[in-house]
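Prompt: Have a read of the protein record below and flag anything odd:
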Amino acid sequence: MKNVGDMRDMKKLYRKLRQFAVLTAVVALVVVAFSLISGGNKSVRSDAESSADDLPVVILDPGHGGMDGGCVAVNGVPEKGINLTIATEVRDILSSLGYQVVMTRDRDISIHDSGVEGVGNQKKSDMDNRLAIINSYEKAVAVSIHQNQFTDPKFCGAQMFYSNSDPLSARFAQIMQEKFVTNIQPENTRETKQVGDELFLLYYSNCPMIMSECGFLSNPEESEKLQNEQYQKQVAFTIAMGIVDFINENYQA
């Protein structure tokens, strides 16, 4: 006979599976609706309609990891885990739609080369290896997922960053920014921002790439939301649909 702890664990697992099933169903409905709205020439990726060779690989880069926690929430929680949770949800959504998805990291690690010593050197090696993953695909789109922070706690809202290293990156950032406003942040008035080589991955990537700063961990209210499982799922769904919209606009025949 199962003990109380086992039964609780099974109930938790069932709830998670049920939530994911519901989310997948919602995604499928959105996909169908978008396909109908867009017309017959452009359709969202599905295994039944197109092959993986037709569309770019989606690369998700959960910022930081391992010894590099990133910025820290008002309650001391580092962004690295939030980034990874959201990126994993995005991966699951897109994979369920048939996209090929690659993550630069899928657990709490730095991907610096073994034997590299010193935090600064490890961070540089980590970034070099992330860029190598991104640029190893001939046809790809990439999103680096982060959380923001500022000295003044009043600032909030997602913001997309891009570099002109690829001409499509600006449009990618605009689509994603609009998706955040439409889906979960209607009061967000932030604009997309072009960056230079201070954002290494964006500047040196060979594919359309953006950085999605999903919100401010320095804002108490937004920090609490960004640590909430349901809100993280909403953010992930928003990012996934932004990627789908961008691919539909630029890669469908």
Notes: The longest helix spans residues 4-38. The first strand starts at residue 57 and ends at 62.
